Amino acid sequence: MRVLLILIAFGCRTALLAQGVPSREENVSHIVTFGAQSQRSWGDDDFSQTFFFLVPGTYAKPIYINVYDPETGGRLDELNGDWNTKMKYSVYGGKETFTNKEARGIAPTKNYKSGVLLASKTFDQDPNYDQKWYSFGPFNPSDGEFVEELGGFVFKIICEGSSGNDGNLYSYFLSIKSNENIAVEGGNAFTYEYSFRLKDQAKSIAHLYPFLDKDVISIKVNTFDFDNDGNIKLYSNAKNGHFVSVSNDNEWVESQHSIQELERNKSIDVQVFKFSSTNNDMVMYVTNQYDVPLPFFAIPLGGVPKYKYKINVSVKSNAK
Fold first, then answer.
1. CA angle 155-158-164, nearest 5°?
2. Is 90 left (phi over 0), alpha (psi -120 to 50) or beta?
3. Which of 28, 146, 222, 307 has the fewest Cβ atoms within 10 Å of its own Cβ atom?
4. CB 171 within 8 A of CB 68
């Protein structure tokens, strides 16, 4: 297993804020997961979403995974007929929570629920949690899976639409408290396939930050159900707005892009430009040249990438 150089996150002060998902930097409305009987054309390809939280190995106090608006019939959620959806949240730690290859896949298949189940709760329509927080924990950091290459303990939370056909919009925060969102110093959050709601604002721009390790020479950007509602571009130290193929309603589209040395061991910025002000839920994942999924970090490792302009200066001689 080639583990990404996540350790550099601990040297980046912005990583201190990385435990909110979606983050402010991403400019995404919410994570979205639909019930198991939903039509995929509503914007969720598999009705399941996995996120990982990383706690530094030096951190020894209890942590909490807080969920905002976990219920399924409130003001944020997307109604399809009558409210009938149940959403199950499950927190995993221990051996193979992260290191099992299928846990880092793009589909809820086989052993994606690897690890030890630490906590679980199913929500339906419940006004007690409409636009309010629910807290999983406390967990000791050692309850997670210690991954030496990452320098810390990894927890996994899976949200799955166990029944129904409505859309659930929610968010997470890795916190040192259950009743307040205070970041775990040096923590981080990431996923390998991102199902999300774009902001309901025309001309809004969402930012997703896949991390490219030192061996990546090309990537494939895969998008689902963007409804042809704008355009998508790549920005990095070497790319200044390379267009990505755009998906229509209920379809996957893939585009391939070469990667230069300047872009390796860094996050790139996938910018989603939205034209309309209507609701739009979509899915995205990115793979390397071996079709191995790459992680999206809530905060880009190494900071937001900035294009490095190449200025060629020619001097005209007047000498004869």
1. 165
2. beta
3. 307
4. yes
